[in-house]
Design brief:
- By secondary structure, this protein is mostly helical.
- Helix content is about 75%, strand content about 0%.
- The protein contains 4 helices and no strands.
- It has helices at about 15-35, 45-70, 75-95, 105-130.
- α1 runs antiparallel to α2, α1 runs antiparallel to α4 and α3 (about 75-95) packs antiparallel against α4 (about 105-130).
- The protein starts with 14 loop residues before the first helix and ends with a helix.
């Protein structure tokens, strides 16, 4: 189904960001596992609640790092983060609040697509910038 298989191609060259990305990927993959065989290994509600909190922390950390070092596309990148948080909270609110038992497969697909594209396209834009600054 919808999983992200972490490989070196996802590395943005900053170890803390890579670790945080891997944690989010793990959460997405847990949601996928719940949907693949119908067994709730960990309730979607718990995973999503953690994911909302962790994604917000990660994105704020990434933004702090970009701002601190003067990343030139900071405003555009921050805007994409804000759009994602709004979507994440909107899509997951019924599950986190307990109104729904499971996350919709379409929303899960959105999470997989957004994170895959965001890391491989948007975050890769700052990889050479941070490498030039000696940040790893």
């Amino acid at each position: 189904m919808n999983r992200i298989n972490w490989t070196d191609e996802y590395s943005v060259g900053v170890s803390k960001l890579d670790e945080q990305h891997q944690m989010i990927v793990t959460m997405i993959n847990k949601l996928s596992a719940n949907h693949e065989d119908g067994h709730q290994y960990e309730p979607d509600q718990e995973i999503l609640s953690k994911m909302v909190e962790y994604a917000e922390l990660h994105l704020k950390y990434e933004e702090m790092l970009m701002k601190k070092h003067g990343y030139p596309d900071f405003d555009q990148h921050k805007e994409s983060h804000g759009d994602f948080i709004i979507a994440l909270e909107h899509f997951s609110k019924d599950v986190v609040s307990g109104n729904k038992y499971k996350l919709s497969p379409l929303i899960l697909e959105f999470f997989v697509d957004w994170w895959t594209n965001h890391i491989l396209e948007e975050d890769m834009k700052f990889k050479p910038f941070f490498q030039e600054k000696g940040i790893s």
